[in-house]
């Protein structure tokens, strides 16, 4: 039990603290006071009920982005294409949201599901290429990120079909109808509850279902899985599909619950945060929720931090990079904290060859 | 112990090997000849536009060549480097800022090479000493590279421009002159590096050891090659190539911009795979990618086709996927790429 506790809490907490210290050093170099900066960040994230809702809202797509990466990890796949899948999901959900006129019980779920499916379609391309042509998913999903960014830009651009006719030169879709928008209950955004429910569902699929067992078997040893009669091709495609569905759903919730429409610049960077979150959570679906809340809080607080100290919000991605490194390198944390015993770490084995194996 | 296979073969064997190489590369050779013939034909038809395209092909290929060679040296030594994008950004940023504050291009070049080499050393530390998953280590470099260069980005700075080096006499030749002999220094460096890496990899003791460590580290270990030290050295050297790739971007753009690599660090990996982990193959593959980009840019510039710019923007990325899907099947990466070496 003690060892378990150390692995789940000590390493992530230590990684976050060291990451924040490293960020503080950079803030000092750029000539600002890190305490004022972090104080602003904390107040902007937790200081009022408004700030709390903002944190929950920011955390919502991050939960789904983290789940997407964590789920693919289980099959030994690195879905680095969360960003593109999320963009497609956000754009398609907006389309359903503004273009159809349906009662809310149908409209809202339909918009979310179509968003998820749009993301899944993009992930399926990468899954099929991996399974049939041996194309490494890291490269294909990154390339598809750029394709999706261009495609969604075009959809709401001057010549695109989903452009808001009233927005003039601004590239964006029309506002989604109220029947497709995710409401808020007090300070609690409903989208957050959806994301937590999805996290629980993903945990169940991974740990309790036959599919989850097959996926982990393929992830641990594809050869052994083949001997056991599991189709590696099928599992690779299905895992990529579900992973990308989660990212697309994250984009849809972003549209229906936060932005209210699709506007390309409003979704940037969300997909990559999923990598840090998944590893911080040691790829456990339930642990993704607190990990996403942490990163979401940093995001939510960055605006107030910037207005108080001129520290640009990019500091967050630098801190995240450090956190990612430390979670993946427990020996460094152990050395920094002068710990003797093993504190575990997220065992990931992705770096297999590029070609057909 | 350190002789390469070439030094002990007979003349007949050499001829046979060369013939084999021709057969193996016949597709590339046929394609190259076709492109050259087409360019000459197009030059008769419209000299100005053709030269614009061919010169741009070479210019666009330069950063890809340098970045792909960075990936190539890493994988040949058994380490997958997915952090080239971040290394290029760090190199371009450091080079730009150093040149901007000092007013000297040379200082900029040194800073760029040093910053990327340092990032390469970090990858070596993570992959060798920490035995971190190499894909994660590369992702860390990408995230931190993009983050740090955006965080410390200062808008509106300028730096001295890279000069254009025209080779006297040769640069006045029709078509060939502006295509090959009128470029900034880093384009020539890219070409030179293809030659240097090729000779170093296939005709020196270092190259033999590097290839051994990438294919079968256990065997290399038993004959006394210090695997971990070699990987450190090679990743640092390879990192400096990524810095030059970043400088090649600055050479074209004139200044640093956030995220200016725009995916080239990843496209370079496709170039490396398409070039079958050989410097000469990298040269050919990078020129092919450069050609597509140049044709695309020229069509867009001339508004020859009524297609939205976003669709043009997708082309290099779709092309990369297509190339990997077609060429990747037969690809055989260095056997030990991606795995930490475990002596037990």
Question: What do these coordinates show?
Answer:
The complex is a heterodimer of chains A (357) and B (344). Chain A is mostly helical and 357 residues long. Chain A has a domain at 61-271. In chain A, 71% of the residues lie in helices and 1% in strands. Chain A is built from 14 helices and 2 strands; from the N terminus they run ααααααββαααααααα. In chain A, strands 1-2 form a two-stranded antiparallel ribbon. In chain A, strand 1 (184-185) and strand 2 (188-189) form a beta hairpin. The longest helix of chain A is centred in the first third of the chain and has 30 residues, at 104-133. Residues 353-357 of chain A have low confidence and may be disordered. With 344 residues, chain B is mostly helical. Chain B has one domain: ABC transporter involved in vitamin B12 uptake, BtuC. Chain B is 72% helix and 1% strand. Chain B has a two-stranded antiparallel ribbon. In chain B, helix 2 (26-45) runs antiparallel to helix 3. The chains are: A mainly alpha (357), B mainly alpha (344). At the A-B interface, helix 6, helix 11 and helix 13 of A face helix 6, helix 12 and helix 14 of B.
Largest sheet of chain A: 2 strands, antiparallel
- What overall geometry of chain B do the principal axes of the alpha carbons give? globular
Biggest sheet of chain B: strands side by side, in what order? 1-2
**Main sheet: strands, sense, barrel of chain B:** 2 strands, antiparallel
Ends of chain A: how far apart? 39 Å
Q: What level of helicity do the residues of chain A show?
A: over 70%
Largest interface: A-B, 52 and 49 residues
What percent of residues of chain B are in strands?
under 5%
The residue ranges of chain A in which pLDDT falls below 50 over 5 or more consecutive positions are 353-357
- Number of DSSP E strands of chain B: 2
Mean pLDDT of chain B: 87
In short, what is this structure?
Chain A is mainly alpha-helical.
């Amino acid at each position: 039990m003690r060892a378990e506790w150390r692995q789940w809490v000590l390493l992530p907490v230590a990684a976050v603290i060291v990451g924040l210290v490293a960020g503080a050093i950079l803030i000092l170099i750029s000539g600002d006071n890190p305490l004022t900066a972090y104080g602003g960040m904390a107040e902007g994230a937790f200081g009022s009920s408004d700030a709390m809702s903002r944190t929950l809202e920011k955390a919502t797509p991050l939960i789904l982005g983290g789940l997407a990466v964590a789920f693919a990890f289980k099959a030994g796949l690195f879905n680095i294409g969360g960003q593109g899948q999320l963009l497609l999901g956000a754009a398609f959900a907006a389309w359903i949201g503004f273009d159809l006129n349906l009662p809310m019980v149908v409209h809202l779920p339909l918009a979310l599901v179509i968003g998820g499916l749009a993301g899944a379609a993009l992930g399926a391309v990468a899954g099929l290429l991996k399974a049939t042509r041996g194309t490494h998913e890291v490269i294909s999903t990154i390339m598809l990120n750029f394709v999706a960014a261009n495609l969604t830009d075009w959809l709401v651009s001057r010549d695109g079909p989903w452009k808001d006719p009233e927005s003039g030169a601004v590239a964006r879709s029309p506002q989604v109808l109220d029947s497709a928008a995710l409401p808020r209950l007090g300070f609690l955004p409903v989208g957050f509850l959806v994301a937590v429910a999805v996290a629980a569902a993903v945990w169940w699929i991974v740990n309790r279902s036959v599919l989850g067992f097959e996926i982990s078997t393929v992830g641990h040893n594809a050869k052994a899985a083949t001997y056991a009669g599991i189709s590696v091709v099928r599992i690779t495609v299905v895992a990529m599909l579900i992973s990308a569905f989660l990212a697309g759903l994250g984009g849809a919730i972003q549209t229906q619950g936060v932005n209210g429409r699709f506007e390309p610049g409003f979704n940037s960077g969300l997909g990559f945060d999923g990598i840090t979150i998944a590893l911080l959570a040691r790829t456990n679906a339930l642990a993704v929720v607190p990990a996403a809340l942490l990163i979401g809080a940093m995001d939510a607080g960055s605006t107030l931090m910037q207005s108080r100290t001129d520290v640009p919000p990019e500091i967050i991605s630098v801190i995240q990079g450090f956190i990612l490194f430390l979670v993946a390198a427990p020996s460094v944390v152990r050395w920094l904290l002068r710990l003797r015993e093993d504190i575990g770490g997220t065992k990931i084995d992705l770096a297999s060859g590029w070609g057909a194996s | 112990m350190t002789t390469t296979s070439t030094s002990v073969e007979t003349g007949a064997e050499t001829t046979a090997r060369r013939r084999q190489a021709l057969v193996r590369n016949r597709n590339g050779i046929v394609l190259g000849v076709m492109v050259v013939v087409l360019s000459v034909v197009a030059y008769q038809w419209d000299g100005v536009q053709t030269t614009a395209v061919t010169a741009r092909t070479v210019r666009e290929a330069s950063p890809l060549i340098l970045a792909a060679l960075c990936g190539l040296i890493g994988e040949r030594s058994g380490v997958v480097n997915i952090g080239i994008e971040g290394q290029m950004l760090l190199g371009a940023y450091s080079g730009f800022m150093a040149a901007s504050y000092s007013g000297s291009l040379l200082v900029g070049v040194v800073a760029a090479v040093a910053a990327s080499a340092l990032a390469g050393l970090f990858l070596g530390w993570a992959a060798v000493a920490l035995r971190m998953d190499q894909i994660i280590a590369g992702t860390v470099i990408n995230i931190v590279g993009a983050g740090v260069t955006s965080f410390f980005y200062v808008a509106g700075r300028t730096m001295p421009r890279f000069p254009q080096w025209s080779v006297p006499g040769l640069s006045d030749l029709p078509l060939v002159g502006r295509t090959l002999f009128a470029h900034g220094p880093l384009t020539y460096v890219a070409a030179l590096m293809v030659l240097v890496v090729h000779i170093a990899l296939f005709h020196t003791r270092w190259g033999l050891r590097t290839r051994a460590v990438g294919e079968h580290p256990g065997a290399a270990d038993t004959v006394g090659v210090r695997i971990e030290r070699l990987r450190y050295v090679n990743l640092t050297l390879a990192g400096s190539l990524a810095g030059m790739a970043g400088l090649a971007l600055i050479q074209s753009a004139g200044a640093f911009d956030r995220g200016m690599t725009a995916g080239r660090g990843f496209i370079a990996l496709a170039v490396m795979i398409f070039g079958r982990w050989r410097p000469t193959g990298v040269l050919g593959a990078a020129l092919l990618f450069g050609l597509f980009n140049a044709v695309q840019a020229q069509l867009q510039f001339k508004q020859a086709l009524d297609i939205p710019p976003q669709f043009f923007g997708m082309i290099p990325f779709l092309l990369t996927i297509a190339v990997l899907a077609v060429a990747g099947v037969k690809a055989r990466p260095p056997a030990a790429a991606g795995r930490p070496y475990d002596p037990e």
